[in-house]
Amino acid sequence: MRQTSNNFTPVTQPLLSHIQKFTSIPPDKISLLEPFFEHKTYKKKEVLLAEGQRCFEKFFIVKGCVHLSYLRQNGTEQTVDFAMENWWTSDFSAFPTAAVSKFSIRATEHTEVLIITADRQHELLQQVPELNEYFHLVFQRAYAACQMRFRFLFEFSKEELYQNFLQNFPAFVQRVPQYLLASFLGFTPEYLSEIRKKYLS
Amino acid sequence: MRQTSNNFTPVTQPLLSHIQKFTSIPPDKISLLEPFFEHKTYKKKEVLLAEGQRCFEKFFIVKGCVHLSYLRQNGTEQTVDFAMENWWTSDFSAFPTAAVSKFSIRATEHTEVLIITADRQHELLQQVPELNEYFHLVFQRAYAACQMRFRFLFEFSKEELYQNFLQNFPAFVQRVPQYLLASFLGFTPEYLSEIRKKYLS
């Protein structure tokens, strides 16, 4: 298989590009990264992480989209978050110690990911400590997004939440199954369908 | 002034202890840290960061408690989060580029903090890149707490949110002004007072 000049396969290249947006890795260390990651593809609705199972891995989305959810008392799935290209996802309370996950992660479409376990990450960061800068900045951004989301949850009515979402993530609204988007926004699918009609007309 | 053997003043010691819980800094580099931080105290209700002003700084809480809020259209303050000892706080969307803050941060009691600007942090991380590991792990934990909070917001009724809060942070519930806790939980102060009576009796 033809590889790119830095020894990254086309599959791992998106991760390297993402890392290089945030930090610079010494060129001689770049080739160390690839073997630490497992490349995996999931079909729509396939499970990456199951609630109630130990969480050993975190996932970098190369292509596709996943949703993070938990099972309600009544047996329905509540979507708490989504992740798309260039986002990391996992249950980050469970990941550092391989504890039992409080969330499931499932593909909402055909999805390619790069996977690393906490143990392998520990080894990787010993060899390439520069990656801590990347993860520092990536988690800072993820936390900043949470701060804004908490503000939106207080500030906006349900209809305004949808409008805001449509304005900031138009491609995303087209892309994810509407019943998952409804769940994420705390709507019934019927209510989402109603306000969608309103904004499309 | 007598200093501790590692040249950290008693004021900076809590930060060093917190760093050392997450990572190890080479002993010869520890003395580099102190000059990067400004120590400041705030009286109850004093403002650390004002919504609408540029955000230059992030804050490590040495002692005390602050709340993060924004101004609603109707002129009342909505509390979005709190931070206490050993937490970092700021508007983390604004901090990296000194952008305009979408939040205010205000002391809820007499509060001591260590302050660093983004520019100074940049210099510090060049001299002590090991601190990226600390910030990686600190932001991972903060993001993990957000994931759980989103789950709680979907899962619990308002009364259950309060119960959960009381169970997990009993000292905290005693410590913060009740009208701020009510705001944070999305209650009216009257409703919080009602359910407090119920759980105290």
Structure in words:
The structure is a homodimer of 201-residue chains. By secondary structure, chain A is of the alpha+beta class. Chain A folds into two domains: 13-151, Sandwich (Jelly Rolls); 156-201. Helices cover 44% and strands 21% of the residues of chain A. The first copy, chain A, has helices at residues 13-22, 27-33, 118-127, 131-155, 158-168, 170-175, 178-185, 189-200; strands spanning 38-42, 47-49, 57-63, 65-71, 77-84, 88-89, 104-107, 111-117. In chain A, the strands form two sheets. Chain A has a four-stranded antiparallel beta sheet. In chain A, a hairpin with a 5-residue loop joins strand 4 and strand 5. In chain A, helix 7 crosses helix 8 (189-200). Residues 1-5 of chain A have low confidence and may be disordered. Chain A binds chain B through residues 68, 70, 72, 78, 80-81, 91-93, 96, 102-103, 125, 129-130, 132-133, 135-137, 139-151, 153-155, 186, and chain B through 68, 70, 72, 78, 80-81, 91-93, 96, 102-103, 125, 129-130, 132-133, 135-137, 139-151, 153-155, 186.
The oligomeric status of these chains comes to homodimer
- Radius of gyration of chain A, in Å, reads 18 Å
Number of domains of chain A: 2
CATH architecture of the largest domain in chain A: Sandwich
**CATH superfamily (homologous) name of the largest domain in chain A:** Jelly Rolls
Approximate shape of chain A: globular
Helix content of chain A: 40-55%
**Helix/strand class of chain A:** alpha+beta
Count of helix runs of chain A: 8
The chain pair forming the largest interface, with residue counts per chain, is:
A-B, 37 and 37 residues
Give me the CATH fold name of the largest domain in chain A.
Answer: Jelly Rolls
Give the class-level CATH name of the largest domain in chain A. Mainly Beta
Average the pLDDT over all residues of chain A and give the rounded result: 91
Protein name (chains A, B): Crp/Fnr family transcriptional regulator
Organism (chains A, B): Taibaiella soli
InterPro entries (chains A, B): cNMP-bd_dom (IPR000595), cNMP-bd_dom_sf (IPR018490), RmlC-like_jellyroll (IPR014710)
